[in-house]
Amino acid sequence: MTVALPARGALERLATRRRTRRRRLSTKTIVGALICGAFLVIAVVGPMVAPYNPSTQSFAPVDILHAPSMAHLLGTTSRGEDVLSQILVGIRATVVLGLLTGVVATALAVVVGISAGFLGGFWDEVLSLLSNVFLVLPALPLLVVLIGYLPSRGQTSTILVLSFLGWPWGARVIRAQTLTLRSRDFVAASRETGERTWRIIFFEILPNEVSLIAASFVGTVLYAIGTSVTLAFIGLTNFSQWSLGLILYWAQNGNALELNAWWWFAPAGLCVALLGTGLVLLNFGIDELGNPRLREATRRVRIEGRAWRPADPTPVLRSARPAGEAARGTRAGATRMVDQ
User: Fold this and answer.
1) Which structural domain range is residue 288 located in?
2) I need a surface site. Which of 118, 193, 223, 279 has the fewest CB within 10 A?
């Protein structure tokens, strides 16, 4: 019995399609990156293109709580302030706070997580105990107490407090991954060749945790933005610096909902929701890039006109053709493959 193999060109085309499919970013990643990129651009150029000073007040009747118009595209507040200018300036403060908190908290998580997982023994027990203590603390009430009693409620103090309470989640995940990598063959080979501990950590452990660290950073930025908006909404913020949370605070104090002044609070709330959605989608995309199983689970194929994913139940297929005709069709398909 002779078995004909596919041509070499067909195998090369199949391998090329598989490589292209692996490199293709998911829709969630692209959408999340576009949303986050748009907010980063607004954070950079927003204060430069703001049509008015966000703190300038006007007590003229025509400027008080005015609906969106050509002069004020997003309307005005009860004190005649331009809402669009406040949002353009406030996005920068909110995004900068989230990014700086993410950098500081992720750096702490990486140091604690890798040290606990790689060193083991006494250091692992001490650092794990420290992480567990911070994990069981009620974060929001503690944040309210700490920021309420700080002499300064500026952005720096908020970043420090949020970073101080935001690193344990990432540290636990990084520790677990480091424990797995520590027992791999390439780490053991590095030890046998006499590599120093810091070199093994920076050149063997860290490169294999880039996607995990990136996901932890994005998650921390999302936590920082959501928490900072919450704290500003209840009045624990610097009132001299505009942010999305401060806009919502003044809208709530000015009874914007009761006055049906939707333009005062809806754009700021929509910005917070869009920014959070973009970060969540970007986090999902980073998880898929770092985990091949998640990437395969989201891939869909068409079977008899229906979309099917590997995570779905195995479909039961029924052929409408007689058995003899199905067999002839199979042989014809095999012949076409050999001819190619």
Assistant:
1) 34-308
2) 193
